[in-house]
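Why does residue order matter? Because the sequence determines the fold. Keep that principle in mind as you read this record.
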Amino acid sequence: MSGLNISIAMDRYDRHFPFFDGTVKAPAGITYTALQVGQSDVLRDGTDRHGEMINNRRYDVAEFSMSSFLMAIDRGLPLTGVPVFPRRLFSQSCMFVRADSEIETPKDLIGKRVGLSSFQTTLSLLAKGDLKFEYGVEWEQIKWLLTTNEKVQFDPKPGVVIDRAAKGTDLGDLLDKGEIDAIFMPHPPISVMSGRVKTRRLFRDTPSEERRYFAKYGYWPIMHIMAMSTDLAAREPQLAEAIMQMFAQAHEISDEFFSDPNWSRLPSGRHFYEQSKAEFGNPWPNGFTANKANLGQFIKYSHDQGLISECFSPERLFVETTLGT
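Structure:
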């Protein structure tokens, strides 16, 4: 690689700050431009990051929806992955019901109406899969209300009830009025997050449930992957490993932020950091080997939900040179 300048589109998380302030150093022969591009929010350098990548390959490398990525690979779209996973969430943190709801367990959702962003949003995929395979609640027995168009088109499984909300609908207001019974979203509407609509999480002791889940499976579920075009991967066969090195640097640098107990504006920021280390160790492993089981779970969920045609091997997702990582 010589004289290669790449664009990297991603969100503005703490672990990405080192890209934006230039403290991440690229390997010899590479320079990079870090772009703050949102998915639904408009950030400094744009929005609709996933749509721009899947439809136009607008960026050389982009943070990308894990669920839509599986669908893209299944359909033979010209994308491939780098085993770097910049976003992770437990589904349990993202399941909301009304504060006065009688819904206390996942089984209480059977026959109910639940609001999602899109059916294939990675959190939606994970939550539906966890309901079925972790909690014994078939997601097919729930009615789904969507607010966002799908990035990759698919035909729903027969008998599944999927409705669409009118443009501009605030799911929090529907929850407040009893028109839906729960919301599963990575970014709940402002009416919920501001406290205007009184909600609680489905799991009353969510942190304990997430620790149990982590102890059982050994991973924090992946939300996003770093994707690039197959053409670029073929032209620059060493680029994928270079990207992995750069993100490893970023994680090391961002980890040091917390050495200053006042780096976060949260009064207990350093204490939360130490508690997280004690409970989860390093929940951010990159590389293929450490994430193979996590990826396999998503492939299983995606196939069960009719989003991909087969349960293919996780190896199919990545640049071949990264499979030994």
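The mean pLDDT is 96.
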